[in-house]
Every structure is written in C-alpha cells, then in structure tokens.
Amino acid sequence: MKVLVIGSGGREHALTWRIKQSPLVSEVFCASGNAGISQDVTNVPLATYADMVAFCKKETIDLVVIGPDAPVVDGLADILNSNNISVFGPSAKAAQLEGSKGFTKDICRKYGIPTADYERFTALEPALAYIKQKGAPIVIKADGLAAGKGVVVAMTEKEACDAVKDIMGGKFGVAGASVVIEEFLEGEEVSFFALCDGQDAIEFGSAQDHKRAYDGDKGPNTGGMGTYSPAPIMTDAMRKRVMKEIIYPTVRAMAAEKMPYKGVLFAGLMMTASGPKLIEYNARFGDPETQSMMMRLDSDLVPALLACIKGGLEKVTIRFKPQAALCVVMAAKGYPGEYKKGSLIQGLEKISTMQDVKVFHAGTVSKDGNIIATGGRVLGVTALAATIEAAQKLAYAAVDQIDWPEGFCRRDIGAKVITSYVGNACSNA
Ligand code: AMP
Ligand code: GLY
Questions:
Q1: What residues contact residue 230 under an 8 Å CB cut-off, 6+ apart?
Q2: Contact, 262 vs 90, CB < 8 A?
Q3: Residue 423: pLDDT above 50?
Q4: Which atom of ligand 1 approaches the CA of 211 most closely?
Q5: How many CA atoms, within 13 angstroms, populate the side-chain half-sphere of residue 348?
Q6: Which ligand is in closest contact with the Cα of 189?
Q7: Pick the CATH number of 117-183 from 3.30.1490.20, 3.30.420.110, 2.102.10.10, 3.40.50.720
Q8: What pLDDT sits at residue 425?
C-alpha cells in the first residue's frame, strides 16, 4: 500500500513513523512534512487540495490520512472521496463536531450527552444579560475554529463581558459571529480517543496535555506543551463509562442525524465530581497527544485506520505497550506570541542513539545538512519507560542533549501526575 499523510507537525511525524512500520505499507509520503519527517518518509510539497488529488491519482495512493483540523473541517475528505480516493478522516458535515462548538453542544443536549450547561448567542445584549444572570466563573467560546484562542475561562463577570464583546466584535472573523456561553467545570482534563466507522466505535487510548506555555500551568494557552499517555485517571471502569455515556451516544447521534462519523474522535473531557463531561470534540488526532500515543502503540495502526473507512472495527484489536510515554515540546522563545524563525538546532544526533527516545519534529526544515527552526512548536522529545516518572526522566535527559539557545520547554511535564498517583500509573489505555 502507498499512504499519503497530510500535515507538517509533530502529530504527522508520529503518524508517518508508525504507518511506515506497517507490513501492509510499501511507501509513505507526507504533504508537506518537515525535516524530521523527511528522515523517515518522502516529503511532497502539495499546496492545494487539487494538487493532493492529482498526486494521489498519479501515484495511485491507497490511503490518505488527514492530520490537522483545517483540512478536516474544510471537507478534504469529501473532495478525496468524490475522486474515489480512500481517506481516513470525517466528512465536513461530521467534522462540525470540531468546527462548530454550538453544533456539538446542541447534539449533546438533544441526545443526553453529559457536558457543561450552555446557551448560544448571535447578539451581544442577550449574551451580556445571560452572563449577569449566571455570574462568574463562566466560559465564553467563539463558535468556529479560532486556532485554539477562541475560548476564555472568565473568572469575573467583567472578563466574561469583555470576551463576548471581543469575540462578537470580529476578533476571530466569522468564527466569532456566534458564541457559546457555558458553565465552568472543575476537575482534571483528559484527552480521550476513539476510532469510529460511522456506526461503531472502539477505544483508542488516552493522554493528558499541558496547555499553558510555562511551568506550573502559567502563561498563555498554547496548542500543547507536552503530554503523557496513558492518563492514570482513566481506569478500566472510567474508560467504559466514557464509551457508554459519551462516545457511543455521539456516534449513534451522528448516524441518526445522517452525518455518520468516520475517523478518530478526540474527546476533551473534564473529570468532574459528578462524572466525566465533554468539554469539546476534535475531529482528528491530538498534537502532542499523538506523539506519546504512537510511542506506546503496539499493534499495527493501518488496519485500524482502514476499518474506520470500510467497516469491521469490531474485528480490530488496539494494543498499547504497558509502559508510559511522555512528550516534551520544545518551542521557539516567544511562542505562542511572536517568535523568530531561522535559528539553528544542534545535538539531535546524540539522541538518535538513545533507546526508547524519539524526537518528533514540527516546525523544522533542513538546510545544508543543518536543522533549522521555522515554527512555534518545533520538536516533541518523546520517551517510553516503565512509569510516567521514568519516562519523564528519560525525556528530559534527551532534551538536555539539544543545543538550541533560541528554544524553550516546560520542565514540569508530568510533574502533577507523578506526585498525585502513587504506584503503577499504567493501564492498557
Ligand atoms: P476548548 O478549546 O473548548 O478545549 O477549550 C480550551 C480550554 O479551556 C480547555 O482545554 C479547558 O482547559 C478550558 N475550558 C473549556 N471549557 C471549559 C469549561 N466549561 N469549564 C472549565 N474550563 C473549560
Ligand atoms: N493538544 C490538543 C489538541 O490537539 O487540540
């Protein structure tokens, strides 16, 4: 089989790396990839969806795997399907679960899926009145995709009102024309994944992300500064509960709404005192959750991806190694704000000989044999070990080999879980 992966981040590096290990696969391409991906598979510069279709036809690609949210929500899967190209990723209609927070909230309400209480608004005055009525803390969300910046967890009414004015005032363009205002949930956050074939779903692991830029969960929100997998809070019983109360009802709801969900469903959950509640859905793999999860995956990824397209998920077994994985993201200084591009990263060759460590690249290019940083999030240094604590030690030992003065990372990835869970933190999730 020939496979094309769409995207150029750490998630796509982890996916291409895993897919290439499948005995079913003869060749892997990535559009457009990065310097790390080009060490493992073949990068192809495909700028438009039309270019991708043409490439798939020319190369007789057997499977396309879409990484990032934008092409998923844009309907790249529909374009490829209409050209008879087999694709892993939901239709644009089904991807509304990620593309419109209001759509997802309405599905949850209609089908009794546990989530924060909410209302939707398209006009400012009723939104402000609702905030006054409910009080703070309260959460304000732009309806559409806003590069992870369209959510404000407001601790005061003023902050909430300012956020609504900002969002409705055009800060996020059409994504902010409609706003969801929801109840503030307290608890531990978990990223939970399921593979879906339109009718059925199977578990596909868990992880926990670190969204804030700096140690101690301080600083601005980012795309994710580090993960570990599995999430110890996801015991066997809790995983079953999430499948029963959240994932299966969603898959059945989407089928009933005539927009069957095929692909990976990424549930952002809050584990509250009254049980797991959905914060949001993403219609794709997580970044940097995928880096940790691919490190642990022990079974062949490709048959699982194919079963989402063709059906037969019930026959697929997903097996993870019993160890834990932990990924430390290295980012350019200034990220998620402004940062410089073009700095030199050295020392990566010292890590290539380390056992159970893999550096997944994100914003890198290769120039005259050197690795140059070109993005905000640049590297995901990922380690596998018996416990989260041991994986943390190994990952930071690798980070310390990297000579990149213009980069930074959090030094506390996994720290909270290491102090709060004693004993074996691993389950097969
Ligand atoms: P989202 O883009 O919906 O995942 O929101 C971004 C972040 O905001 C989440 O990862 C949570 O940390 C936080 N958040 C979102 N919704 C809520 C909520 N209802 N209660 C508390 N925190 C929330
Ligand atoms: N790490 C969070 C995300 O992929 O959205």
A1: 205, 206, 207, 296, 320, 324, 425, 426, 427, 428, 429
A2: yes
A3: no
A4: 10
A5: 24
A6: 1
A7: 3.30.1490.20
A8: 46
Any atom of ligand 2 within 6 Å of the Cβ of 69? no
Which CATH class for the 2-91 domain? alpha beta
* pTM: predicted TM-score of the whole model, two decimal places: 0.95
Ligand 2 centroid–CA 287 distance in Å is 5
Q: Is 287 in the pocket of ligand 2 (CB under 6 A)?
A: yes
* 8 A C-beta contact, residue 216 and residue 210: no
| Ligand 2 atom with least separation from CA of 285 | 4
- The predicted pLDDT at position 429 comes to 55
Domain ranges of the chain: 2-91, 117-183, 188-315, 324-420
Cα(279) to centroid(ligand 1), Å: 6
**What pLDDT is recorded for position 174?**
77
User: Is residue 136 in contact with ligand 1, taking CB distance under 6 Å?
Assistant: no
In CATH terms, the superfamily for domain 188-315 is ATP-grasp fold, B domain (3.30.470.20)
Nearest to 308 by CA among 284, 288, 286, 280: 284
Ligand 2 atom with minimal separation from the 288 CA: 1
pLDDT at 426: 47
Domain 324-420 has CATH 2.60.40.4070: no
pLDDT in tens, 88-129: 999 999 999 999 999 999 999 999 999 999 999 999 999 999
pLDDT tens, residue by residue, 311-347? 999 999 999 999 999 999 999 999 999 999 999 999 9
Residue with tokens 């690798």: 398
User: pLDDT averaged over the chain?
Assistant: 95
Residue 219 has a CB neighbour count (10 Å cut-off) of 15
pLDDT band of residue 171 (cuts 50, 70, 90) is confident
Q: Is 7 in the pocket of ligand 2 (CB under 6 A)?
A: no
Task: Give the mutation target among 208, 209, 329 for probing the ligand 2 site: most ligand atoms within 8 A of CB.
Answer: 209
In the block, residue with structure tokens 């009102």: 161
